[in-house]
Amino acid sequence: MQSLDLNKFPGVELPRFIKIKQHFNRQKVEDIPGEVRKQMEPYLGNLTGKRIAVGVGSRGVANIALVTKTVVDTLKEAGAKPFIIPVMGSHGGATPEGQAELLASFGISESAMGVPVDASIDVETIGEFEPGSPIYVCKSALEADGIVIIPRIKPHTCFRGPIESGICKMLVIGLGKRLGADSVHSRGFDRFAELIPKIGCMIAQKTKVLFAVALVENAYEDTYKIEVVPKADILLLEREAALLEEARSLMGRIMFPKFDILVIDEIGKNISGDGQDPNVTGLYITKCVSGGPEFKKSIILDVTEESHGNANGVGMVDVTTRKLFDKIDYISMYTNAYTSTEVEAVKIPMVAATSEDALRMAVKMCNGIGTGQHKIVWIQNTLELTTMLISEPLLAEAEANSNIEVISGPKSLTFVEGEPQKNLI
């Protein structure tokens, strides 16, 4: 692949940078195993000898291996015979091997958990949510004597409603494997606020769902709350709706409402379903949602190893790097887009040879701003929003915010073979 020779564009100078720290609510669960056991205890009756499917998803959930191991061990102690199933729709390339590999990358494997992992993607229909629209549930869950899921509850990236990402979505999209995800996504995100709770309740009612071990995180990727939501409360929806609002209030955010350039070090499926969380960046894939900071140009530099080449989300920015481009697994990425029916996120933006070139390209393409005056926010990813870099023209705004601490700088960035040495600031 050819790249622009930036020597042909003289005068593209970068401002100096400052390292800052944003401060959010730090409350978290200190004893995770103890809290999981305490929450599960009222719902462990009559499980002796029963096979319980424990559903785990594909998102980068804090402490997910520890939570899953505690759930499994607690079920064993109650006399049950738990096994783990991936509940991640079409993720992992929509194959048993890919989904098992994703779980293993989170530390959830047969050897680590001490129970089998059944990654079969076979499904059965349990009815219709509309005429001609089947509801799919994976056979391994239907054949169990009970189903327990471990969802993280959080705002969704593509729609708004009282119920978004969480219990119902994991039942509908995750438990339905690829066919279930396809069936709902084909209706479009503008109907998700209606369909996710409706179908979720239908699945909970018609299957042997026992409870959800619901997780809420704070802005530091720490487990803020663990709450077991039993089947009766899943059907009422009220607890999930309340937990969603709590999760929304805790989310990390960029504390600068308007600037010129957003730089994201990395995107990934372990970070967000869209690679980056548009609730943080404003880079929404659909028109069903809006909000977030305002800026002129944006850059993504890399994709996480945990994404296994699924660079879904790269299409939302203006510039990326050859480093990311060379890692793309198009089958995995396009399967994700094909299932969601949204293709904007997998389009390829301008590709720069290096991270330095990407930054200079974005600066060059911001019109009407004086040399060295570009306001730049540089984050690691949308889960890590505590420490970040900002350019010097944002310093006064940072100093005026009591929730922002200036750590060091301003200093000029040093690049080695086109990659920034940000640790020097």
Explain what the structure shows.
The chain has helices at about 30-40, 65-75, 95-105, 110-115, 140, 165-175, 175-185, 190-205, 230-235, 240-250, 280, 320-325, 330-340, 355-365, 395-400; strands at about 15-20, 50-55, 80-85, 125-130, 135-140, 145-150, 210-215, 225-230, 260-265, 295-305, 320, 350, 375-380, 385-390, 405-410, 415, 420. The strands form five sheets. Strands 10-9-13-14-1-15 form a six-stranded mixed β-sheet. Helix 1 crosses helix 2 (about 65-75) and helix 6 (about 165-175) packs across helix 8. The chain is α/β, with parallel strands linked by helices and about 425 residues long.
Short account of what is shown:
The chain has 425 residues and is an alpha/beta fold.
What's the helix and strand layout?
Layout lengths: L16 E6 L9 H9 L10 E6 L7 H14 L3 E6 L9 H10 L4 H4 L9 E8 L2 E6 H4 L3 E5 L16 H8 L2 H9 L6 H15 L2 E9 L5 E8 H6 L1 H13 L10 E7 L10 H4 L15 E7 L15 E3 H4 L4 H11 L9 E3 L2 H10 L11 E4 L7 E5 L3 H5 L4 E8 L3 E2 L2 E2 L5
Parallel strand pairs: 2-3, 2-6, 6-7, 9-10, 9-13, 11-12
Antiparallel strand pairs: 1-14, 1-15, 4-5, 7-8, 13-14, 16-17
Helix pairs in contact: 1-2, 6-8
